Amino acid sequence: MLRLSKSCISDAEKKAVLSVLDNEFLGMGPKVKEFEDKLSSFFGRPVMCVTNGTAALHLSLQACGIGKGDEVLVPSLTYIASFQAITATGAKPIACDIESRNFLLNISDAEKRITSKTKAIMPVHYTGGVGRLDSVFKFARQYNLRVIEDAAHAFGTTYKNKLVGSFGDISCFSFDGIKNITSGEGGCIVTKDKKVINKVKDSRLLGVEKDTDKRYRKERSWSFDVKNQGWRYHMSDIMAAIGLEQLNRFSEFAKKRRKLAKKYDDLLIQNKNIKLIPRDYKSVVPHIYVVRIIGLKNRELIIKNLNQKGIQVGYHYHPNHWLSYFKDKQNIKNPLKVTDEVYHELLSLPLHPDLSEKNVSYIVKELIKVIERNEVK
Ligand SMILES: *Cc1c(COP(=O)(O)O)cnc(C)c1O
User: Fold this and answer.
1) How many Å apart are CA 81 and CA 152, to the nearest integer?
2) Mutate to test the pocket of ligand 1, among 54, 182, 235 (most ligand atoms within 8 A of CB)
3) Is residue 64 part of a domain?
4) Low-confidence ranges of the chain (pLDDT < 70)
5) 220 C-alpha vs ligand 1 centroid, how far in Å?
6) pTM listed for this prediction
């Protein structure tokens, strides 16, 4: 089976994990510190590691003082994690539409949904693309909003020759098993805002003040104060050991992901049934490869047919504004036109560094065959 996505693990990661196990210190210790230091050099900004990308978003929002009574603008076409991170603080996610051109947050649509309760905007770098990120920051300055980037898809992507995470307000990454690099589970927050840094350092450790630095010295806090709600969201040395090796291998991963995505583009660009999501792979390191199949009616049948050919496919995402927990009467009055129009037609094709260009050719050949049989439209 050609998998839709997977972790790519070498002997280096296995050895690194064994050496942490041999230490018999598995919690948050020197390996996490080392991983944070390496990530800080990568981004050129302070980095705090946490258990996953969702926790990174949750703690970032909390550190900005966002909670009950507040609203956060976010595209509906994202992983549930973006929405759940917002509701976790007590705030309300305001589902926004995307631009049909690039599938990224539509600022004019977001502007229509602003109220006096709006405190932040969470752009989602869908598939790894960032679009006109400058206009998001401009919009945020205009309305005095915090910008918490959901950069889970965009590890390694650059914007105007700067790495995503190296500029802006707060950027959150995920290191879950299938992301551009993994630490098993894991995630990180990148920011230069000292207040946010100090708050996150405590809140990831149940709110115990100054616990982070003690743990890096393999010490514990016995006498301490807690002034805020905290969470058990810190990273472990086992995870960091995997992450460090993956970071070493990242340029190799990035090269391969770009090559495969370009190959898909080349093979599909002429097809009249398919619309590509335009991404410039000189700057984007793609996390997933999504196509839009014009007029697609029976996605389940495509999935079944391709599975029978040994190809695993899926789709990203079921829009959040259609999920029971996030449904909002506002969206009946003010529909998300592009999202509602395109999401039935999206299909994600396999993309991970262990895939070959030959695999991509085979996947495309089988995809076109299924579409041309005309049972799916
Ligand atoms: C993976 C992902 C997250 C959350 O990351 P986890 O590490 O799985 O918690 C958030 N947003 C998007 C768009 C993601 O793809």
Assistant:
1) 10
2) 54
3) yes
4) none
5) 30
6) 0.98
